[in-house]
Amino acid sequence: MGKLKITLIASCLIALMGCGEAKSPSTQETLSPSVSTPTANSSPTASPTAATPPISTNTPQATNSLPTQSSTDATPNSAMPGKNQLISAEGIGPAKVGMTLGQLKQLLAGKAEFQVKSPFIVDFDAIAVIQSGKEQYYILYPAGAPLADSDVIEALVTDNPDYRTAQGIGPGTLLTQAEAVYGDATLYYNTLNESREYVKFAKLPSKAIAFRTKAPQGQQLAGSYPSSQTELKETNKFQKTASVALVEVYCRENCPLPSP
To answer: Which of 80, 114, 170, 227 is deepest in the core (most CB within 10 A)?
Structure first.
């Protein structure tokens, strides 16, 4: 797909994180083995063979809320994740940012169903990767710009508590528990980004992983924010029962450039 789409999705993903500054301690990734995404001059070598994903007949309305209800009931999984359930700077499970959709389909041929979710949330559509009847993770892309098998995966998200970082942090983990691993938490949201609330940690050693928060039941936000007229709101105070709702991974500057 053209250079215009790469520019579009890059800007959308920065907005999705809820904070436009590139110098935050983590962009939405975790420290793990080095990312092996294609370079600017590389091109995918695998030939997509899987069929185009079916479009769900029960199309949801676009929403600012979390993508599915599973994160609402997510409970942390204390077991260490295997490689097929690991969240890292490279991706989520077998899905890696920087690979093409066709490569992932080929890798999971006969093991997973790919189902389009359009609309998914405001500004984004998604392809759900389903195994054993359960949605494992989603491939995000800008609304109205469907992915072809030759297109690069630039953003992944999961609300499945079976998926965690190497340090055991994932959907359902209390923010207080995540702080014990990654250092002090700062919660934030931007009024220009649908007020989607995220949390960053002082010692998270990667910029490819982002954590979206889950507020206690009946509350809109997990954090307690001081009165402010600024678009970006930040706080270090949050409800002790607040947790991680979902985890996002994206490739940012490591996304390969389109072929000339």
So the answer is: 170
> Which amino acid would we find at residue 132?
S
Residue 161 lies in a domain: yes
Looking at the chain, the whole-number percentage of residues with pLDDT higher than 70 is 67
260 domain residue, yes or no:
no
* Residue 118 near residue 143 (C-beta atoms within 8 A): yes
| 118, 63 contact by CB (below 8 A) | no
Give the tens place of pLDDT for each residue, 158-182: 999 999 999 999 999 999 999 999 9
3-state secondary structure of 153: coil
* Residue-range definition of the domain harbouring residue 224: 3-254
pTM of the model: 0.72
DSSP label at residue 222: S
First to last CA, the chain: 10
Say if residue 115 is exposed, middle or buried (CB neighbours under 10 Å; 0-12, 13-18, 19+).
middle
Rg (CA), the chain: 17
Scored b (16 or more CB within 10 A) or e, 143-163 reads beebbebebbbbbbbbbbbbb
> Is residue 259 situated within a structural domain?
no
Please report, for the domain that includes residue 206, its CATH number: 2.60.460.10
* Total Cβ atoms within 10 A of residue 123: 17
